[in-house]
């Protein structure tokens, strides 16, 4: 008798789990998977800190995450036109972007640094000398702003790889890139070196939502707040940012 009741309970639980996943609200999330360790492709599969964090948020908020990988500069327009519902792409909250989207609170709590890369043969001594020099950046990125501030002749690229290859071939004078991503590329691109660093004062990476999505922003902020200092969250940081864990 008890066995039958148990079976019924289990069937009920399984049915409800199934229906939750069948009827979960789909959240289309845009990213740009060329930003190690935030989001990148590993054997063709999307992975990274942001990807795992967003899946976790989805679980807790009852969203089924549907990923859309696209170019970085295409993310905000895609959000504005409703092709996606959210962006998680290591995106910093700049005042310019705040006009276009609603941001969650930052989901990483350390300051980000950026590398100024040059060719090994470069005669430049520091980032200030990039004034009037050609500096490659990813189109629409924070680094584009830094390069402009340095007075450089800014050359935007669709991908970091394109910029770095031009740097290897001496077609441009420097590239500004987020530290972790830069270190990854430096491992294989032996003709490049770090000239200098830039620390950014923007609040850390945040999730972007369409303007006016107050309810979603609050829901996500609450989940982020609850995740702070939990093992679930800390383990993700250790996994993807081992060096930040001091
Ligand atoms: N943090 C920088 C920014 O907000 C770079 C982000 C690049 N992210 C990416 N997935 N490519 O502009």
From TrEMBL:
<feature type="domain" description="Solute-binding protein family 3/N-terminal">
    <location>
        <begin position="26"/>
        <end position="244"/>
    </location>
</feature>
<dbReference type="Pfam" id="PF00497">
    <property type="entry name" value="SBP_bac_3"/>
</dbReference>
<dbReference type="GO" id="GO:0030313">
    <property type="term" value="C:cell envelope"/>
</dbReference>
<comment type="similarity">
    <text>Belongs to the bacterial solute-binding protein 3 family.</text>
</comment>
<dbReference type="InterPro" id="IPR001638">
    <property type="entry name" value="Solute-binding_3/MltF_N"/>
</dbReference>
<protein>
    <recommendedName>
        <fullName>Solute-binding protein family 3/N-terminal domain-containing protein</fullName>
    </recommendedName>
</protein>
<dbReference type="InterPro" id="IPR018313">
    <property type="entry name" value="SBP_3_CS"/>
</dbReference>
<keyword id="KW-0732">Signal</keyword>
């Amino acid at each position: 008798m008890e066995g039958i009741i148990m079976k019924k309970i289990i069937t009920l639980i399984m049915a409800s789990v199934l229906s939750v996943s069948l009827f979960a609200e789909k959240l289309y999330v845009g990213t740009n998977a060329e930003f190690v360790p935030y989001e990148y492709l590993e054997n063709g599969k999307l992975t990274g800190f942001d990807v795992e964090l967003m899946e976790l948020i989805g679980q807790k908020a009852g969203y089924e995450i549907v990923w859309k990988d696209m170019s970085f500069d295409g993310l905000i327009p895609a959000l504005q036109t409703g092709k996606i519902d959210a962006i998680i792409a290591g995106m910093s909250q700049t005042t310019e972007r705040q006009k276009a989207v609603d941001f969650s609170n930052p989901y990483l709590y350390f300051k980000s640094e950026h590398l100024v890369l040059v060719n090994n043969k470069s005669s430049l001594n520091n980032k200030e000398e990039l004034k009037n020099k050609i500096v490659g950046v990813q189109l629409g990125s924070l680094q584009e702003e830094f390069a402009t501030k340095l007075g450089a002749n800014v050359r935007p690229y669709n991908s970091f790889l394109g910029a770095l290859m031009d740097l290897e071939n001496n077609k441009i004078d420097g590239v500004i890139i987020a530290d972790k991503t830069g270190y990854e590329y430096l491992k294989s691109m032996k003709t490049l070196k770090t000239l200098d660093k830039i620390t950014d004062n923007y609040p850390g990476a945040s999730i972007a939502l369409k303007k006016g999505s107050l309810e979603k922003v609050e829901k996500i902020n609450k989940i982020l707040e609850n995740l702070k200092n939990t093992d679930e969250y800390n383990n993700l940081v250790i996994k993807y940012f081992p060096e930040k864990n001091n």
